[in-house]
Each structure stands twice: as structure tokens, then as C-alpha cells.
Write a structure and sequence with these properties.
Residues 212-242 form the Transposase IS116/IS110/IS902 C-terminal domain. The chain has 244 residues and is α/β, with parallel strands linked by helices. The chain has helices at 37-43, 57-66, 76-79, 89-100, 113-144, 157-166, 174-207, 209-215, 222-232, and strands at 5-9, 14-20, 26-33, 48-52, 70-74.
Length: 244
């Protein structure tokens, strides 16, 4: 009997494969090094390959689809109930294989390279926003120790910077001034990078009819519209799609 469904547990270096025949009987258990993955699946007859929708899953899905396999990506939380014993790579691969065969299972659409490119822009933008917020909060706390305060918001940073520059050395010692100015420069650099990310996102939005249609809805701008299009594609499986 030939393998009709394979559960593939992804990893950085050593992957686990679990295959069953048409009757659901296990006929394949194997570990594969990363370099062996494509040669192994190239030799396999076309079959259904299930994977958890985690990091690198969309990359491997595209690769396997190119050589004729049908790939099903499953949200990790839907695989967990099928793990029958202590969590191991072999148990995970078996659970993925079983979950893949369930008729009511929800699958994650395979993202294109273009979708993941836009998601990368959004992830970097979110990271820059978090870093800038953290730096601003630290800066406000340090300035407050010298009695320099201002209202909330990024726009108030100019007021804080001016107050620091006009404060004499008896108010803010030289060592503290240098440290605080370093944070101001860091915030400026993060803001510049953030602007670059947003400009790239808006440029892609202008070239995407799907994103422009979404942005026509009240309360939806280019940032939100591009994130939705990149995450869910045509939206046919909206509830199952994830920002992986």
C-alpha cells in the first residue's frame, strides 16, 4: 500500500514524518534532515501533506505544492487534541497526520511570497512601534526625575527636547543630559524607520485592488486593509487564517 496522507512536523534541522495508507494504517515513520526533505518528497507519489501553520510552514507548503503534493496547513491549536501521548516529534507528526484526515478540519490558506512580504513589513512596523513606545516611556521617566514633564503623545517630545536643551547644568547634570539626548536620537531614528515601513505599505496598497476595496469601508485605512489582504488573501477562509 502507498502513502496517501503524511503528517510533517517542522523543525530547524530534523523533521519528523508520519504516513498512513488509504485505510489509515501507519506505514511510514521517519526522521529527515533538512537537506533531505525535498529529495524525499520528490520520490513520494503525490499525496496530502499536513503541517502545522507555524514558522516556515508556508515556505515548505509552496515547495511541496510545486512538486505535485497537496498541502494542508492546520492551526496548531487544532492539532493539540490529537496528540495521544507525551509530546515528542513523532507524536506531533502522528497528530498532524490524523488531524489532516478529519473532514471538518479548518485549514489555513497557503500564503504567497507577496503576501508574506507585506506581512514582513507589518511585523517590522509593529516592532518599531513597540520599541519607540518603550523608549519614549523610559525617556519620560528619566526626565521626570529632573522635573521635566510634558503632555502625553509623540508630538510632545519636541516640548521635552526643548526643555532639556534650555535646562542648565544645575538642573540636569552633563552625564544625564548626554544619556537623555541619546534616547532622543534613538527615537528620531525609530520614527524615520517607521515612516519608511509605512510608506512601503501604502505604496503596495495603491497597487492592490483588493486592498483599495477594503479601504473604501468606513474606519479601514491602508495599514489595516493591507494587513487583512496579506493575512487572509481572498478571505474565503477568513476565520482560519492567521498572521504566520
Amino acid at each position: 500500500m502507498s502513502v496517501v496522507t503524511i503528517g510533517l512536523d517542522l523543525a530547524k534541522t530534523v523533521f519528523q514524518v508520519h504516513g498512513v495508507d488509504e485505510a489509515g494504517v501507519t506505514i511510514l515513520r521517519r526522521k529527515l534532515a533538512r537537506a533531505e526533505i525535498m529529495s524525499f518528497f520528490t520520490k513520494q507519489p503525490a499525496c496530502i501533506v499536513g503541517m502545522e501553520a507555524c514558522s516556515s510552514a508556508h515556505h515548505w507548503a509552496r515547495m511541496l505544492v510545486e512538486i505535485g503534493h497537496t498541502v494542508r496547513l492546520i492551526p496548531p491549536q487544532y492539532v493539540k487534541p490529537y496528540v495521544k501521548r507525551n509530546k515528542t516529534d513523532a507524536a506531533d507528526a502522528e497528530a498532524i497526520c490524523e488531524a489532516t484526515t478529519k473532514p471538518n478540519m479548518r485549514f489555513v490558506p497557503i500564503k504567497t511570497k507577496q503576501q508574506q512580504s507585506i506581512l514582513a513589513l507589518h511585523r517590522v512596523r509593529s516592532m518599531l512601534v513597540r520599541q519607540r513606545t518603550t523608549t519614549i516611556n523610559a525617556l519620560r521617566g528619566l526626565l521626570g526625575e529632573y522635573g521635566l514633564i510634558a503632555g502625553k503623545g509623540v508630538r510632545q517630545l519636541a516640548t521635552l527636547s526643548q526643555r532639556l536643551s534650555t535646562a542648565d547644568e544645575t538642573t540636569v547634570p552633563l552625564e544625564a543630559r548626554e544619556a537623555l539626548q541619546c534616547l532622543f536620537r534613538h527615537i528620531d531614528a525609530l520614527t524615520e524607520k517607521l515612516g519608511g515601513m509605512e510608506a512601503r505599505i501604502v505604496a503596495w496598497h495603491k497597487s492592490s485592488p483588493e486592498s483599495q476595496r477594503l479601504a473604501s469601508a468606513p474606519g479601514v485605512g491602508p495599514i489595516k486593509a493591507t494587513a487583512i489582504v496579506a493575512a487572509v488573501g481572498d478571505g474565503t477562509q477568513f476565520r482560519s487564517s492567521q498572521l504566520f
